[in-house]
Amino acid sequence: MGWMRMIMKFRKTEQALREKEELFRKSFEMAPVGIAMVDLDYRLKKANRAYCDTLGYSEEELRHLTLSDFTHPDDLEKNLRLQGALGRGEIRHFEMEKRFIQKSGKVVYGILRASLIRSQAGKPLYFIGQVLDITERKQMEEALKVAEREKAAVLNSISEIVVYLDTEYRILWANRATSQFLGISPEQLAGRHCFDVWFHRNSPCHDCPVTRAISTCQVEEGQIVGPDGQAWLIRGYPVNDEQGAFVGIVEIVQDITEKQQLENELLKMKKLESVGIFAGGIAHDFNNLISIILGNIEMAAIQDHAGPPEFLSEARKATLRAKALTRQLMTFSKGGAPVRKRGDILRLIEDTAAEQLKNSGLTFQIITSSRPETLLFDPEQIRFVLENLIINAREAMPNGGHLQFTVENVRVGDKGPESGMPLCEGRYVRISITDSGVGIPETLLPLIFDPYFSTKEMGVQKGMGLGLATSYSIVRKHGGHISAASQEHMGSTFSVYLPAGEGETTILSRPAEQADHKIAGNSVADTGRKKRILVMDDEEMVRNIAGRMLAHLGYGYAVAEDGHDAVEIYEKALNNSRPFDAVILDLTAADGPGGQETLQRLRQADPQVKAIVSSGYAEDPVMLRFREFGFADVIPKPYSIRIMADALARIFRQPAGE
């Protein structure tokens, strides 16, 4: 019975052992990770299905391979080194990420965990390793890295500043533009608060769009002007996770300082253009009225053979001052184009400064590092600009001071201090006029070039608010720019940019105007010798005073209201063999053809017609280059009997057709 019990116990033990072995075998075979038993010579003893599937070999094929046959060359040295340390008992186990080479040649990634199995006596028997296939995970990681690189490449190519913030305003990521602008590496920016980086504050900005976006969880944008005057457009874009929870915010910052400057310049130009249209019409009508007043004053003075009374002389002086004012108004209009010629800008500055600062107690200095480049400019107009700037500087230094003119050659391009100005790329001469006066308040500085803006009491002799506006318009029409910088109690600097030019421009002389304010007397009478003149003007009182002047000068005359009447009267006189010796044509007419069209029609009837153009638009191209448009001479309004006499005398000295 004892033997039977021993046999039964042995059988049960044997059965239990077989069951355990079967359980181990199934666990080994069905394990989701690859498992391999490797002898001490690194030859495979046994491998489960997952291991074989990972490498793409059968178990039998693997028994004939060594470790180097299916290990990536770059990982073999580390694998052998760790395996050797394990075999020598230096380590109990190891883990490494390695690349396996499948039978097909494809590389797969796995995590290898290896340990050494020993006998009860401690003798090494074999290695056992587990391989977890992480190829899919590595592919996802690589795809994520590629996406991160692409995202970084896209965001780093953007010129705007792009920053990713957490909900506490801390910078998590910044693009290259941010780093370049701040001069701080992205790594140094990480973790810092945006309000500290931008404005050196200890707390968020009160009206920052990022603050609003964090509060509302909606896209917000707005403008912020920094302490240095730079303007920024800031946008905040909330970022939500997959569950919709707010996790951060993307801040995009754009420097719009230059854009705002250009917009302000454009607005200023549009304002000047609007005023120009209005001023041109007003000045034209005003010139007609001045012509009537001035003409009648002169005719009244002529009738008094004892000489003009003092009150007529004063009235004439006031009228001539009004005439000068219309010249300023005309600068805004379409007729204010400059007539350029090559000039010496240094000489013009020196002469103008010496004249305007004479007996003022002020000193001036002209500084130039090199000879200014060639300039083509209208000397009368640029002299006007210099005079206005010098007068303003003189008035800003009532207790004396110093005026400095700095003349430099500069180049305007995409970069540099002049890059934000409304100027075409190219070479310019910059004339900077710096005074040591009271300066201009910051609130008034943006307004100083506006028409009719003045800090002086308004009046003919005080401030009409047209000096700087006219100067701005003149410089713009030269293709240049004028800017101002000032600090209260620290003085001001006005900078005039004029484009450098090549060659020389042909200039036709303007008609000379009466140099003094004396009233013309009988010295110009009886010069007409009964020649007949036809006057076309749409203003009746202008026609009347022109007729009186012509009669006083000894000319016969007829008048026409518009171009149609003028052509009809001229042709009728021609057919009656009593032709007119000359015609005076108003350049513009409210109704009917103006002077240019009328002249063309007159030439059809009489190719030898002598025509004089007249207009209040003294700087209209037709008035400035009258011969190019077929006219023999020009009479600017308001009329002066001396100018009319001289113009008629000139054309009657010319051969017909010139």
From TrEMBL:
<feature type="domain" description="Response regulatory">
    <location>
        <begin position="532"/>
        <end position="652"/>
    </location>
</feature>
<dbReference type="Pfam" id="PF00989">
    <property type="entry name" value="PAS"/>
</dbReference>
<dbReference type="InterPro" id="IPR000014">
    <property type="entry name" value="PAS"/>
</dbReference>
<dbReference type="InterPro" id="IPR003661">
    <property type="entry name" value="HisK_dim/P_dom"/>
</dbReference>
<feature type="modified residue" description="4-aspartylphosphate">
    <location>
        <position position="586"/>
    </location>
</feature>
<dbReference type="InterPro" id="IPR036097">
    <property type="entry name" value="HisK_dim/P_sf"/>
</dbReference>
<dbReference type="InterPro" id="IPR001610">
    <property type="entry name" value="PAC"/>
</dbReference>
<dbReference type="InterPro" id="IPR004358">
    <property type="entry name" value="Sig_transdc_His_kin-like_C"/>
</dbReference>
<dbReference type="Pfam" id="PF08448">
    <property type="entry name" value="PAS_4"/>
</dbReference>
<feature type="domain" description="PAS">
    <location>
        <begin position="147"/>
        <end position="192"/>
    </location>
</feature>
<feature type="domain" description="PAC">
    <location>
        <begin position="94"/>
        <end position="146"/>
    </location>
</feature>
<keyword id="KW-0547">Nucleotide-binding</keyword>
<feature type="domain" description="PAS">
    <location>
        <begin position="20"/>
        <end position="77"/>
    </location>
</feature>
<feature type="domain" description="PAC">
    <location>
        <begin position="218"/>
        <end position="268"/>
    </location>
</feature>
<keyword id="KW-0418">Kinase</keyword>
<keyword id="KW-0067">ATP-binding</keyword>
<dbReference type="InterPro" id="IPR035965">
    <property type="entry name" value="PAS-like_dom_sf"/>
</dbReference>
<protein>
    <recommendedName>
        <fullName>histidine kinase</fullName>
        <ecNumber>2.7.13.3</ecNumber>
    </recommendedName>
</protein>
<keyword id="KW-0902">Two-component regulatory system</keyword>
<keyword id="KW-0597">Phosphoprotein</keyword>
<dbReference type="GO" id="GO:0006355">
    <property type="term" value="P:regulation of DNA-templated transcription"/>
</dbReference>
<dbReference type="InterPro" id="IPR013656">
    <property type="entry name" value="PAS_4"/>
</dbReference>
<dbReference type="InterPro" id="IPR011006">
    <property type="entry name" value="CheY-like_superfamily"/>
</dbReference>
<dbReference type="Pfam" id="PF00072">
    <property type="entry name" value="Response_reg"/>
</dbReference>
<dbReference type="Pfam" id="PF02518">
    <property type="entry name" value="HATPase_c"/>
</dbReference>
<dbReference type="InterPro" id="IPR013767">
    <property type="entry name" value="PAS_fold"/>
</dbReference>
<dbReference type="GO" id="GO:0005524">
    <property type="term" value="F:ATP binding"/>
</dbReference>
<dbReference type="InterPro" id="IPR036890">
    <property type="entry name" value="HATPase_C_sf"/>
</dbReference>
<dbReference type="InterPro" id="IPR005467">
    <property type="entry name" value="His_kinase_dom"/>
</dbReference>
<dbReference type="InterPro" id="IPR000700">
    <property type="entry name" value="PAS-assoc_C"/>
</dbReference>
<dbReference type="InterPro" id="IPR001789">
    <property type="entry name" value="Sig_transdc_resp-reg_receiver"/>
</dbReference>
<dbReference type="InterPro" id="IPR003594">
    <property type="entry name" value="HATPase_dom"/>
</dbReference>
<keyword id="KW-0808">Transferase</keyword>
<dbReference type="GO" id="GO:0000155">
    <property type="term" value="F:phosphorelay sensor kinase activity"/>
</dbReference>
<feature type="domain" description="Histidine kinase">
    <location>
        <begin position="281"/>
        <end position="502"/>
    </location>
</feature>
